[in-house]
Write a structure and sequence with these properties.
By secondary structure, this protein is of the alpha/beta class. The chain contains 12 helices and 6 strands. The protein is elongated and about 70 Å long.
């Protein structure tokens, strides 16, 4: 599968290269940041791919500081910078997203494979439009959100599902807790449609859905998380959410820790072939509701 090349990918690619060049010259982030009249905190976020480097002049100053003289190398860095500043498709939704979700959308767009564990609700890329709308509408009076907020978030969620289709779809493996599937969102009709959608998507070759029954005595994480893989030499990223705060990191320790967690739950969950049977049982229970 070819590597995806969105602006978030380019920011991470540029940041990785700038960090390599800085460390090769033996400069600290504080020293390099001073050369462009910035802070080491901001430069750290540029090197990690979280933030853009807005001014081309800053990149040119770093190129000089790091002693990059080869013309092709310089042009490559400038190309990465230009492409990192291009508009992401999800930018129109930025006013309706909590902090951290813009970065997540960018990472998701660039990922070639994803492993996800979701114990609270149906995983976002598996949700139907009616399920997503019911979920946002239910919380609307409590969270004091607007109808526009609801509709924009539903539209974004449906747009995000496009990574699973097309000529080179992302490979997706999801483990769903039974409790999340049994949580009544929007009523029986909405849930019936949602179960059918999960079964339909799980039938695709590049999507695997496993269910972790609630009566199994096995390991399960109490926080949701996603592990994303990328081509092009970029490190995997783990995104986890706790207390409504979303955190993304490519630190090896965190990636390995969450990979161990995912593998333990994958081994404990029902085999993928059992997913349709389990969903049919849930539909039957709805018919008796």
């Amino acid at each position: 599968m070819a590597a995806r090349r969105g602006p978030t990918f380019r920011r991470r690619e540029l940041g990785k290269e700038l960090r390599r060049l800085r460390e090769r010259k033996g400069y600290s982030t504080k020293d390099a940041a001073a050369a462009i009249e910035s802070s080491d905190t901001k430069l750290n976020r540029v090197e990690s791919g979280h933030n853009q480097l807005p001014r081309v002049r800053d990149l040119e100053d770093l190129i000089e500081l790091y002693g990059v003289t080869d013309r092709q190398d310089r042009e490559h860095l400038l190309m990465l910078h230009r492409e990192s500043l291009s508009a992401d498709w999800y930018r129109p939704y930025q006013n309706f997203l909590p902090s951290g979700h813009l970065l997540y959308a960018g990472l998701e767009t660039d990922a070639t494979a994803m492993r996800a564990w979701h114990p609270q609700v149906v995983f976002g890329l598996l949700q139907t439009e009616n399920y997503a709308r019911a979920m946002f509408t239910t919380s609307k009076p409590v969270e004091e959100t607007t109808t526009e907020f609801v509709e924009e978030n539903v539209a974004l969620r449906m747009r995000r599902k496009e990574v699973l289709f097309g000529d080179e779809p992302m490979e997706l493996r999801v483990i769903q807790d039974e409790a999340a599937l049994r949580l009544m969102i929007g009523g029986p009709d909405v849930m019936r449609e949602q179960y059918e959608e999960i079964e339909r998507m799980a039938s695709l070759d590049h999507i695997t859905v496993q269910i972790l029954p609630r009566n199994l005595v096995t390991y399960r994480s109490f926080e949701s998380f996603v592990i994303m893989d990328f081509d092009g030499g970029l490190d995997p990223v783990v995104v986890h959410e706790a207390l409504a705060v979303m955190t993304a990191t490519d630190k090896r320790r965190e990636v390995w820790k969450h990979t161990r967690r995912f593998d333990a739950m994958r081994e404990g969950a029902l085999a993928p072939s059992k997913t349709p049977e389990f969903l049919h049982k849930l539909v039957k229970e709805l018919d008796e509701y």
